[in-house]
Design goal:
single chain; about 280 residues; alpha/beta; Nitrilase/N-carbamoyl-D-aminoacid amidohydrolase; eight-stranded mixed beta sheet; six-stranded mixed beta sheet; about 30% helix
Length: about 280
């Protein structure tokens, strides 16, 4: 595993999905291996990485999830890296599934999971119409996990649009925020870079957003353009539209430097307003 407590190599696995769930999973595992060979200490997959983001496909792919977890445990341990396993459909209320992101440490143990909190029931300008609540159960918790490089967290796709989430994570000292996502072409062009950079600036942290590669043969066409933004809002990576494994080294000392010279948290007027999580996580 490459990196010290101050620097870490992030491997972005921007997979081009098809409708063969088993092949998508196999490809994702190969991409994790490639990221590790390139020197990644953390490999990151997109939202619903082994299925296109379409209701029928999500339902039909759900039986792959438990197998995927077993394989991901093995890959993380074999390569000695942390794996942010995008997300996958996980058994929910019997009719719908959680949209669950798992984090595996370098020993292959599950150290964190996050169920997507906000559900995208929208018809955005440019389409397509999406009613996520037909197939997904919302999660009700938010948290963080420890890494050798400091505290990190995961949120999923639509969660990034909600500013209080970023504020709560900043309050908990999160230095790296991973965002597996599957923005459509329309919403991606309009808002993806803006949101990744805004959350990085608000949190004064690294935001690592990972999407599937663009594939116009799907009914729901993902945008691609996986992206990493620095605590100052600089774009360190734009992966473009094609399937790719990209490596980016980030310096966590920049989080400390920017937070100390530009102390947003200390300047927050807590005598006037506050952001509070209402349920126990």
């Amino acid at each position: 595993m490459e990196g010290s407590v101050d620097t870490v190599a992030i491997g972005i696995c921007q997979i081009k999905q098809g409708y063969d769930h088993e092949e998508n999973l196999s490809k994702a595992l190969r991409m994790i291996d490639e990221a590790a060979r390139k020197g990644a200490a953390i490999a990151v997959l997109p939202e619903m990485f082994f299925t296109p983001y379409e209701p029928f496909s999500i339902r039909s792919s759900a039986p792959v999830a438990e197998k995927a977890v077993d394989f991901l445990k093995q890959r993380a341990k074999r390569n000695g890296i942390t794996v942010i396993a995008g997300s996958m459909p996980w058994e929910g209320d019997g009719k719908r599934y959680f949209n669950r992101a798992f984090v595996f440490d370098c020993a292959g143990d599950i150290v964190y999971s996050h169920d997507k909190i906000h559900l995208f029931d929208c018809t955005p300008p440019g389409g397509p119409q999406v009613r996520e609540s037909d197939v997904i159960v919302p999660g009700n918790s938010l948290g963080a996990f420890e890494t050798p490089w400091g505290k990190a967290s995961v949120i999923v796709c639509y969660d990034i649009r909600f500013t209080p989430v970023a504020q709560l994570l900043a309050d908990h000292g999160v230095r790296m925020l991973f965002v597996p996502a599957a923005f459509s072409t329309a919403t991606g062009k309009a808002h993806w870079e803006m949101l990744v950079r805004c959350r990085a600036v608000e949190m004064q942290a690294y935001v690592i957003g990972v999407q599937p590669a663009h594939n116009p043969s799907l009914k729901y066409v993902p945008y691609g353009h996986s992206m990493i933004a620095s605590p100052w809002g600089e774009v360190l990576l734009d992966a473009g539209q094609e399937e790719t494994v990209e490596l980016v080294h980030i310096d966590l000392q920049r989080v400390n430097s920017i937070r100390s010279t530009f102390p947003l948290l200390a300047h927050r007027r807590k005598d006037l307003y506050e952001t509070v999580w209402k349920v126990r996580s």
